[in-house]
Amino acid sequence: MPKNSHKVKLALKYCGSCNPHVDLTRIARHLTKVAEARGDFQLVPLPEDGIDVVVILCGCPRACGNKAEVRARAGQSLLTAGESVNGRHVPEAHLPSTVEQELIKILDS
User: Fold this and answer.
1) Which residue ranges form the domains of the chain, and what is each CATH number?
2) Region 72-85: what's the mean pLDDT?
3) pLDDT at position 5, please?
């Protein structure tokens, strides 16, 4: 558990998926499993108050879901845009584990 002993609230924001280059649901399913295994964060709806982290899931490099108002919903954000995480190229097969690693850095900080 984080130092302040509350479960971190994590929300997912999907783009419109009009031109998906990657499988975003695979990342979401992976994060659901990680939440269950770790127990120190929970997935919540984006409209909920007090979100700590938002993971913005965009299917292509355009990153249309990466909006200031989305990032403002949470203290921190991670961006997946096609085959990249926070601007760093990641092959599609490694996207779920890379998002997990970036999230763990936030949780453990």
Assistant:
1) 8-107 (3.40.50)
2) 98
3) 66
